[in-house]
Automatic annotation (TrEMBL):
3-methyl-2-oxobutanoate binds at D44, S45, D83, K113. It is found in: Cytoplasm. HAMAP family: PanB. This is 3-methyl-2-oxobutanoate hydroxymethyltransferase. The gene is panB. GO terms for molecular function: 3-methyl-2-oxobutanoate hydroxymethyltransferase activity; magnesium ion binding; methyltransferase activity. NCBIfam families: panB, PRK00311.1. InterPro entries: Pantoate_hydroxy_MeTrfase, Pyrv/PenolPyrv_kinase-like_dom, Pyrv_kinase-like_dom_sf. Its main location: cytoplasm. It comes from Pseudosulfitobacter pseudonitzschiae.
Amino acid sequence: PLKALDAAAIRARKGGTPLVCLTAYTTPVARIADTQCDLVLVGDSVGMVLHGMASTLSVTMEMMVLHGQAVARGLERALMVVDMPFGSYEESPQQALRNAVRIMAETGAGAVKLEGGRHMAETIGFLVQRGIPVMGHVGLTPQSVNTLGGYRVQGKGDDAARIRDDARAVSEAGAFSVVLEKVPAALSDQITAEIDIPTVGIGASAGCDGQILVIDDMLGLFADFKPRFVKRYADLAADATAAVQAYAEEVRARQFPAAEHVFTDAGAT
Ligand code: KIV
Ligand code: NA
């Protein structure tokens, strides 16, 4: 078996073979992701994808810990990163440390991820200096949807310098990697060339040091909406709907259960 990956191993992949990353929220899906992924993120997207929330703002520490524990049981090789939920780290470096320690201790995560650039650099440094590997996240930061004015592309035109400065600040603060979300491709490539840590793109560029998608999106399982940056590699919602329909028809026709699904008095238990 391959050696388990830690944050330092991910960091060392800068400029190398692109990092393969996906989200996961449950043990069985984590097992599937682990067959190919270098990094599995327990994203706070769990609130929208599994719990039907309208944004990530209502996701709690308890949800991240519970899903982190589930995902940990399915991983052998990939680095598990757990998102810090909205409100769990912004107040102070001390608050961030307390909650990051809880996530690491209760889930076995190898790192945490938090959103924000320059304004979070002090906190990132504070955590890293105390033994907590941090993945940054700049560009579109969904926890700030209400101040960003929606889920729009970040860093267009004159706004590019803001995203570059954010990525640089996260890197200089000691993060081992950084997510670039919905950043124009040319700017993503420029940032990737400029900073010392791997960039992991989502709606960014094939030139990033890695890519990440929400697994339910790429499997076509989360069909509520499909952002431009999602490529569907399967259509599991359609497959599941067809399977449920076939089951319903067989139940109504008394074709299910068949002889092999039922028990006899003398046979197997
Ligand atoms: O919560 C999430 O799934 C994420 C990734 C898409 C980067 O933060
Ligand atoms: Na997230």
